[in-house]
Amino acid sequence: MGIPMEGETIQIHSYKHDGHIHRVWEETTVLKGTKSIVIGGNDRTTVTESDGRTWITREPAICYFHSQHWFNIIGMLREDGIHYYCNLSSPFVVDDEALKYIDYDLDIKVFPDMTFVILDEDEYEEHRQLMGYPDVIDKILKANMDKLIKWIRQKKGPFAPDFIDTWYERYLTYRNF
């Protein structure tokens, strides 16, 4: 596994359990890169869906990936505060092509007041049957969902006050105006 260098621009590739590409983010600037953590920033980056459709993100975002946790966290800076989108996923890997992970459908959307909703439970169950997620993966994902909810409630990691703002300030130092 490679370690992305601070200041480097990388792609992020999301896959499904069956190995098919799910989504590609074209450009994310690495703000911190170690064997266990990658923190990146992007703004108005092109995203390509598995069916070829593209769209552009609407606001700056700070992305948090960890090699030991089965989730990743995106903090989006909006006018009314920081909104988080959390994907239950495999831990990340990095190769010469991109930072990569498997998206396991379950998501948590967190609002600026730190209330949250769990999304896509039906999609998870459908894909679990269709793609044959092993029971061990199901147990790992449920345990990591609990861990993620604790992080949200305890304002830990990317949910800590000033975490997203601090990394966004660093991201701004890399932007070309």
UniProtKB/TrEMBL annotation:
Signal sequence interval, chain numbering: none
UniProt-annotated catalytic positions: R23 (proton donor)
Cofactor: Mg(2+)
Pfam families: DUF402 (PF04167)
Catalytic activity, EC: 3.6.1.15, 3.6.1.6
Gene Ontology terms for molecular function: magnesium ion binding; nucleoside diphosphate phosphatase activity; ribonucleoside triphosphate phosphatase activity
Keywords: Hydrolase, Magnesium, Metal-binding
Binding positions for Mg(2+) 1 per the UniProt entry: N87, D103, D107
Highest taxon above the source species: Bacteria
Catalytic activity: a ribonucleoside 5'-diphosphate + H2O = a ribonucleoside 5'-phosphate + phosphate + H(+); a ribonucleoside 5'-triphosphate + H2O = a ribonucleoside 5'-diphosphate + phosphate + H(+)
Binding site for Mg(2+) 2: D105, D107, D120, E123
Boundaries of every DUF402 domain copy: 18-156
Family: Belongs to the Ntdp family.
Role according to the record: Has nucleoside phosphatase activity towards nucleoside triphosphates and nucleoside diphosphates.
Protein name: Nucleoside triphosphate/diphosphate phosphatase
